[in-house]
């Protein structure tokens, strides 16, 4: 059971990005963990992280299908300490860029957003993502490519696209 608890943060981050609502994400993760604990016997030595995130993902999409979500709250990204910036002007510019990236990421279609979040934020392998999303590895690669391309198209700073991923 400790195998699952250590993935709680990853489960919450995935749910938050898919559902776009902190409270809904908390509820979805709680339900996913209950489901995972009840079905722990089916894990059988596989990748516990991918197995759990697949349960979280499926629960999130079930919620979206039921229409239980999409209040589109303005959830806030965890803010990195601005200690590393030498002046407030740089810190403000950084926050504006991060906000633009966050908004662009939220506007990606869910199937593209999920693979990007799993790869870039959760640092999962293509194989793990394929397991979580229940899609072939080739589909993971093409979705990642499309997600990155669309994200770059949506994010531009000073009139030009910036390398963000």
What would a concise description of this structure say?
The chain is mostly helical and 165 residues long. Helix content is 67%, strand content 2%. The chain has two domains: 2-66, Rna Polymerase Sigma Factor, Chain: A, CATH 1.10.1740; 82-161, Arc Repressor Mutant, subunit A (Orthogonal Bundle), CATH 1.10.10.10.
Describe this structure in words.
The model is unreliable at 70-87 (pLDDT under 50). The protein has 165 residues and is mostly helical. It folds into 2 domains: 2-66, Rna Polymerase Sigma Factor, Chain: A; 82-161, Winged helix-like DNA-binding domain superfamily/Winged helix DNA-binding domain (Arc Repressor Mutant, subunit A, Orthogonal Bundle). Helix 3 crosses helix 4 and helix 4 (48-66) crosses helix 7 (126-133). 67% of the residues lie in helices and 2% in strands. 30% of the residues are buried. Strand 1 and strand 2 form a beta hairpin.
